[in-house]
Amino acid sequence: MHKSVLLKETLEILDPQPGGIFIDATVNGGGHARAILERVGGKGTVIGIDWDKDLVEMLRSEAAQKEYKNFHVIYGNYKDIETVIPKKIIGTVDGVLFDFGYSSYHIERAGRGFSFQKNEPLDMRYDNHGANTTAKTIVNTWPQDSIADILRACGEERYAREIARAIVQGRKEKEIATTYELVSIIERVFRGRSRGRNIHPATRTFQALRIAVNEEFENIAEGLAGAFRIVRIGGIVAAVSFHSLEDRIVKTFFRERAQKGEVELVNKKPIVPTQNEIQMNRRARSAKLRAARKINISL
Ligand SMILES: C[S@@+](CC[C@H](N)C(=O)[O-])C[C@H]1O[C@@H](n2cnc3c(N)ncnc32)[C@H](O)[C@@H]1O
């Protein structure tokens, strides 16, 4: 079960009241959504969105068993938030929560190559029923320069050029089909080099491929814009990010909107987890929560 990050803090920021309408745009196993549901009570509504159909089906059957009448789970991309939610609630939503990236389910159970520590097919799509390019297609068909570009832009990989060259060399010998095949190519590049900061040599490449496969940066920007269009005046959009590239998109987006007088920042500095939470959940260590309130109808 995925441990929800910054749960107490997101509830404080969203402050769900009885009868409220909230959207969890990255519902996953419903950790945050359940807590919001308890606060809004029987007269409130919580809509969860996830791009992973398998997860959505699991959560729907659980919601049906528990007879949650006011909890609706939608399969979709949060970048389309305006079109996937019921039209009648547009403009009445009290808050939207984003909790970006992958979950424990993706690492431990999905079998789609999200982790370099497991030998799985190189897929990395959240939406494995959809049409997005897989990581396998990227590493086996993209030009060397394009691979280097995404390793730099989405993984801040210092050795992007060297890794891209090794990938292209490797695929000439044999198609790269699994995570371990890719890891062994990356490890060869790092032989004799120091990776620094004690991270595995494949960490940044895997991050970059996951972001590129799922077009995560584009989705975040479009999702935030859509969320502000569907909340009411006074409604809140909150976002939990897990690395500096994600956080930069959220920070820039909120600041630009605040400068135009469309939103106000709820917290000037990002909210980060307590030491206690980090000790209980390693994934929380890099989390940052930012939130903004809609103050202008023109959005
Ligand atoms: C970190 S998990 C959310 C955990 C959840 N807040 C909880 O407490 O249980 C992120 C989820 O976002 C989903 N996701 C990633 N990109 C998405 C997108 N563009 N649209 C909708 N869901 C997405 C993933 O499938 C994953 O289930």
From TrEMBL:
<protein>
    <recommendedName>
        <fullName>Ribosomal RNA small subunit methyltransferase H</fullName>
        <ecNumber>2.1.1.199</ecNumber>
    </recommendedName>
</protein>
<comment type="function">
    <text>Specifically methylates the N4 position of cytidine in position 1402 (C1402) of 16S rRNA.</text>
</comment>
<dbReference type="GO" id="GO:0071424">
    <property type="term" value="F:rRNA (cytosine-N4-)-methyltransferase activity"/>
</dbReference>
<dbReference type="InterPro" id="IPR023397">
    <property type="entry name" value="SAM-dep_MeTrfase_MraW_recog"/>
</dbReference>
<feature type="binding site">
    <location>
        <position position="99"/>
    </location>
    <ligand>
        <name>S-adenosyl-L-methionine</name>
    </ligand>
</feature>
<keyword id="KW-0698">rRNA processing</keyword>
<comment type="similarity">
    <text>Belongs to the methyltransferase superfamily. RsmH family.</text>
</comment>
<dbReference type="GO" id="GO:0070475">
    <property type="term" value="P:rRNA base methylation"/>
</dbReference>
<feature type="binding site">
    <location>
        <position position="106"/>
    </location>
    <ligand>
        <name>S-adenosyl-L-methionine</name>
    </ligand>
</feature>
<keyword id="KW-0949">S-adenosyl-L-methionine</keyword>
<dbReference type="InterPro" id="IPR029063">
    <property type="entry name" value="SAM-dependent_MTases_sf"/>
</dbReference>
<keyword id="KW-0808">Transferase</keyword>
<feature type="binding site">
    <location>
        <position position="50"/>
    </location>
    <ligand>
        <name>S-adenosyl-L-methionine</name>
    </ligand>
</feature>
<keyword id="KW-0489">Methyltransferase</keyword>
<keyword id="KW-0963">Cytoplasm</keyword>
<feature type="binding site">
    <location>
        <begin position="30"/>
        <end position="32"/>
    </location>
    <ligand>
        <name>S-adenosyl-L-methionine</name>
    </ligand>
</feature>
<dbReference type="GO" id="GO:0005737">
    <property type="term" value="C:cytoplasm"/>
</dbReference>
<dbReference type="Pfam" id="PF01795">
    <property type="entry name" value="Methyltransf_5"/>
</dbReference>
<feature type="binding site">
    <location>
        <position position="78"/>
    </location>
    <ligand>
        <name>S-adenosyl-L-methionine</name>
    </ligand>
</feature>
<dbReference type="InterPro" id="IPR002903">
    <property type="entry name" value="RsmH"/>
</dbReference>
